[in-house]
Specification:
By secondary structure, the protein is an alpha/beta fold. The protein contains 13 helices and six strands. The chain has a six-stranded mixed beta sheet with strand order 3-2-1-4-5-6. The longest helix has 17 residues.
C-alpha cells in the first residue's frame, strides 16, 4: 500500500489542535510539529515491508488556478510566521524519518496527490491518503481511500455519500454548483450543498443538468442556474484536481524508518521526551 500524506491539511489541523501552545526551550512554537508526528508515527510503525510513504506540501499559494480565476483563494489571510516555520520543520522531520517530501510549483499539493494516486491505481495498488480535506473525496474509488488521522477514521464511498449526498465521481459537479467560500470558488449563487446534491442526483452530471435546464421544475433554481452558468463551469475547473502533474524523477521505494535520524530530529528540533518515548515504543529495534 502507498500512503500519501496531505501535509498542508495535517499541519494546519495540528497547528490549531490541543498541543498548539507547545514551545521549545528557545521559545519557538512546535505544537504543530508535535501534533503532526504524533499522528504519523503510529502509521509508520504499522507499515508492512512493501508499503511506501510520500509527504506532499504546497510549494506556494499560487497555482494555475489563479490564471483561471484571479480571485481564487484571494480572501485567505496570510499564513502565520510560526506556522511557516513549523511547516519547514515538519518537512525536515519527514525526510529524517525516511519519507520523500514533494513540493511542486505551479500546482497544489492536492493535484500532486491526485496524480500519484491515479498512477498507483494504474499499477493495481491501493492508495491511502492521510487528510482531513473534503476536496480529496473526489478521488475515492475501489483503489483509493482517505484516512482522517486526527479522528482515526477511514473514508470510503459511503462516507463520501454521507458528506456530499452523491458518489465520489459526482463530487466535482456538486462542488461546481455549491462553490466554496474558504477557497473563494464562486459556484452558483443561491444554490447550497443540499440543492446541489439534489440536482446532480437527479441529472447525473453538470453537463446533463445544463443540457436539460428546461426540466428543472423550480423557476428560481432554473433562473439561478441559467444566470450563473459561466460561474459553474469556472468553478468546475477550479475544483477538479489535475491527475497529470509532471512527476519526473520521483522514485517511490518501500519505506524504511530511520530510527537514529528520527530520534535526533525529535530530541534536537522538537525537544519532546514524549515523542522520544513513542519512537522507542513503536520501533523497539534499531534500524538504518
Amino acid at each position: 500500500m502507498l500512503t500519501l500524506i496531505d501535509g498542508n491539511s495535517l499541519v494546519f489541523r495540528a497547528y490549531y489542535g490541543v498541543h498548539a501552545n507547545l514551545t521549545r526551550s528557545d521559545g519557538l512554537p512546535v505544537g504543530a510539529v508535535y501534533g503532526f508526528f504524533n499522528v504519523i508515527l503510529p502509521l509508520l510503525a504499522s507499515a508492512k515491508k512493501e508499503d511506501s510513504f510520500v509527504c506532499v506540501f504546497d510549494a506556494s499559494r499560487i497555482s494555475f488556478r489563479q490564471d483561471i480565476y484571479p480571485e481564487y483563494k484571494a480572501n485567505r489571510a496570510e499564513t502565520p510566521a510560526d506556522l511557516l516555520a513549523q511547516s519547514e520543520l515538519i518537512r525536515i522531520g519527514a525526510h529524517a524519518m525516511g519519507m520523500p517530501v514533494l513540493c511542486i510549483p505551479g500546482v497544489e499539493a492536492d493535484d500532486v496527490i491526485a496524480t500519484i494516486a491515479t498512477n498507483n491505481c494504474n499499477n493495481a495498488d491501493v492508495t491511502r491518503i492521510i487528510t482531513g480535506d473534503k476536496d480529496l473525496m473526489q478521488l475515492v474509488s475501489n483503489c483509493i481511500f482517505l484516512y482522517d488521522g486526527m479522528k482515526q477514521k477511514e473514508i470510503h464511498e459511503p462516507q463520501v455519500f454521507e458528506k456530499f449526498g452523491v458518489s465520489p465521481n459526482q463530487v466535482i459537479d456538486v462542488q461546481s454548483l455549491m462553490g466554496d467560500s474558504t477557497d473563494n470558488v464562486p459556484g452558483v449563487r443561491g444554490i447550497g450543498p443540499k440543492k446541489a446534491a439534489e440536482l446532480i442526483s437527479e441529472f447525473g452530471t453538470l453537463d446533463n443538468l445544463y443540457a436539460n435546464l428546461d426540466k428543472v421544475k423550480n423557476d428560481r433554481t432554473r433562473n439561478l442556474l441559467s444566470e450563473n452558468r459561466e460561474s459553474a463551469y469556472i468553478s468546475k475547473k477550479l475544483v477538479t484536481l489535475k491527475r497529470d502533474v509532471d512527476l519526473e524523477g520521483l522514485v517511490i521505494k518501500p519505506f524504511v524508518f530511520d530510527k537514529k535520524s528520527a530520534l535526533d530530529f525529535v530530541q534536537q528540533k522538537i525537544e519532546s521526551n514524549s515523542l522520544v518515548a513513542k519512537i522507542e515504543k513503536l520501533f523497539p529495534k534499531d534500524t538504518a
